[in-house]
Amino acid sequence: MPIVEEHKESGSLLIVGKRQQIDYSLHPSIVGEMFRPEEFQMEPLNPLEPSSSGVCVFGLNDGCDRLEAIRSLAWFNEYFIEAELGRGTHLNSIRGTVNSRMEYDHVSQHQLSTLLSLLRLQYKKASFEFANLNMQSQQAFELARRGAPRPRVLGSPLIFGLDLCYFKLPYFKLNIQINGETDQFLCDFIHEIGLNLSTVASTRKLRRTRQGFFGIEHALLDKHFHLESVLKNILMCEKILAKNLEENLNCEIIELNEDNEKEKNLENENLPELEDCLKLPFGREYKIC
Questions:
Q1: How many Cβ atoms from other residues are within 10 Å of residue 107's Cβ?
Q2: Which of 59, 61, 148, 256 qualifies as a FRET site for 138, CA 20 to 30 Å off?
Q3: What is the rounded distance in angstroms from the CA atom of residue 100 to the CA atom of residue 188?
Q4: Is there a cis peptide before residue 50, judged by omega within 30 degrees of 0?
Q5: pLDDT tens-digit profile of 15-28?
């Protein structure tokens, strides 16, 4: 805003400077708030419970309309779950109160690994059923050679990968690659593992490290929750979707993630040696009287 004064001799008006004036044209007191909460619509692709952590993909405004199409691709999600044997909680929840205690000293790494192998086989068989494939057909054989078939019947949890990362009584850690799950299903799954080992088990920590094409390297932290970082992340996610969406639209198999082999191998260094099941409790040299 110009500063005007009279000339001492002629009396004409002269501009002698400028003064900064506040622009009230967009002031909230004049026009109201620029944005309102109801103008933003956010919907998670696969929600996480408050007690869980990790990668969570959201749809924003028009992006919410694309979530159903993305869910139909049957992406797999990857989790690392830390659990404890001999401890049961209310509703098997992470933050639930402890309501049961049982002995766990009889559980060995070999028993847990054997159980996980059986579960992998059962879910692999179920994956062909959910893909509407005949187990005796040539098509099922060809898909089994290439990988896991993509499920056509959605809504039911299917485990594609199940590995033991750490074992030291009473604690163990699992890496799970799964589709159609919820946090409650995973907590119940850990509880069922405990029951099959003649004890109880509960989830201590649940962390999702990958959701489809998106991993922890694409996620925003709390310190990044500002306009510039959010816009950059939206553009990055659009590029990832454009690159991978068409490739996986007609693909009949699910490619499992193998990028975590390094992490699993590092943790496997802490695993105790497997129990020798052929070792005799008595000496091999003995006499029969």
A1: 21
A2: 256
A3: 15
A4: no
A5: 888 877 777 777 77
pLDDT at site 283 = 43
Band (232; pLDDT cuts 50, 70, 90): very high
Nearest residue to 52 via CA among 176, 236, 182, 169: 182
Helix (H) or strand (E) holding 166: strand 158-168
Reference 80, options 104, 102, 57, 53; nearest CA is: 53
Q: Which secondary structure element, helix H or strand E, spans residue 162, and what is its range?
A: strand 158-168
The DSSP call for residue 126 is H
Smallest Cα–Cα separation from 77: which of 257, 251, 232? 257
DSSP states along 64-94 = GGGHHHHHTT---EEEEEEEEETEEEGGG-T
CA 100 to centroid of chain Cα atoms: 28
Query: What's 96's DSSP letter?
Result: S
- Integer Rg of the chain from CA: 29
> If you search the block for the tokens 């401890």, which residue do you land on?
87
DSSP string across 131-179: TT--TTSHHHHHHHHHSEEPPSS-SS-EEEEEEEEEEETTEEEEEEEEE
Q: Which residues contact 195 (CB under 8 A, 6 or more apart)?
A: 201
Cα end-to-end distance, the chain, whole Å: 116
Q: Are 199 and 85 a contacting pair, CB within 8 Å? A: yes
Beta bridge partners of 175: 80, 163
- Tens of pLDDT, residues 102-148: 999 999 999 999 999 999 989 888 887 777 777 777 777 777 777 67
Three-class DSSP category at 62: helix
Q: Cβ(206)–Cβ(96) under 8 Å? A: no
Please state, in angstroms and rounded to a whole number, the distance separating the CA atoms of residues 149 and 142: 10
- Which amino acid, residue 78? E
278: phi then psi, degrees, rounded to nearest 5: -95, 0
